[in-house]
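pasting input
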Amino acid sequence: MEKEKFTSRFGAIMATASGAVGLGNIWKFPYMLGQNGGGAFLLVYIVCVICFGLPLMITEFVMGKSSGQSVRGAYQTLAGNNRWNFVPILTCLTVMFITGFYLVITGWCVKYFWISIVDGAWLQSMGGNIVCSLVAALISMGVLWMGVNKGIERLSKIFMPILLVLLVVLIVCVLLLDGAGKGLSFLFAFDASKITSRTVLNALGQCFYSLSIGMGALITFGSYIPKKQNVASTAAEIVGIDTLVAIMAGCAIFPAVFAFGISPEQGPQLVFSVLPAIFGQMPGGQIVSVLFYFLLCIAAITSAVSLLEVLVASLMDLTEKRPRPISRHKGLIYAGAACLLISVLCTLSLSADNKWLILGGKTLFDWVDIITSNFLLPIIALGTVVFFGWFVDKKVMHEEMAPYYGKQKWTMNVYYFLIRWCFPGLILLIALNSIGLL
Ligand code: TRP
């Protein structure tokens, strides 16, 4: 059966951008920025995105587009043998755990959205959390059920623009508060003394996460990009949208935080416990809070959709040549069920009653996060750059770029210098930093 492709350039950009724009932009970026010195972190982050994020996004897109396959098939086609199969297998396992984890937090977004409309005390219970994750998972699965064009592409063409408009509305509301200016100057004032090696490595890690690099998602989406579309400019636009949304989220959150005299260094609970308190005291707070959590739900659910798509597409590719290939619908049920199970176990582990899910003082929820982001993701990212830089024929990249950039040899030389020599070392540094060895 012919594989689906995105119907237009706009569709491809919206679909991939809506996957990239997620909790990383609206939940994680603001608290990371708050903890890492404000404007200095922002500048370092932008430099990382351009020098590091963009070339890696292009690499993954080229892998998907030139092979026409998702993660599993892309490695096999480009390598011409089975020797690299461990990378896609590890990728799918990691994505399964990350999706389970992501659904827990997406569930929190749904919960706060629900609470901002009606007062549902029961939602705070364990059962309430599980129901919310289930709702998020079922919505995401419903979208994928309809396929790449009718599901993912159509959904993101509607919701990505809505998300941008909502962010603008929120920024305007927040900027009307007394004392909002201090938040903006925290965000944009540059203080070089705040840049430490830690800031740089945190910014690099955040850039990876926010652009969905190293998880096979960009390979999968790359395989849906129409043949005639330029992947380099497509990647540049997606990177631009993702970074813009992160900065806009900062502009919506910090002015409120400063106007209410709260310290910006709150960490992960910034969006889930500090903001509700602020909304409670703000004029028109309920409307702002409904808008904010609706926005967070859109961002998180569209990302959960693209995470799940990695698994569904790989299951379909893997069994394509078998007598009874797995259909999209069947693959979706398998993948969805596995991720939901992980997410329910993660939620259960957050209650002290379930001691069997707590190991060495840390819950299953913590362990999934620690193991995936500190160990598995760096291994996969390293696998990707070493594979593409050293083992894939340079012709693959040349053929993708030549129609648009002709024979500009120096860009290729810079690219290969980065991917062969700089990126592997940088990825190791990020990994050592997140394990705490640096
Ligand atoms: N980029 C997403 C965010 O900002 C998170 C993410 C990482 C992701 N890798 C992914 C989403 C792969 C979809 C697919 O929240």
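fyi DSSP finds 17 helices and two strands in the chain.
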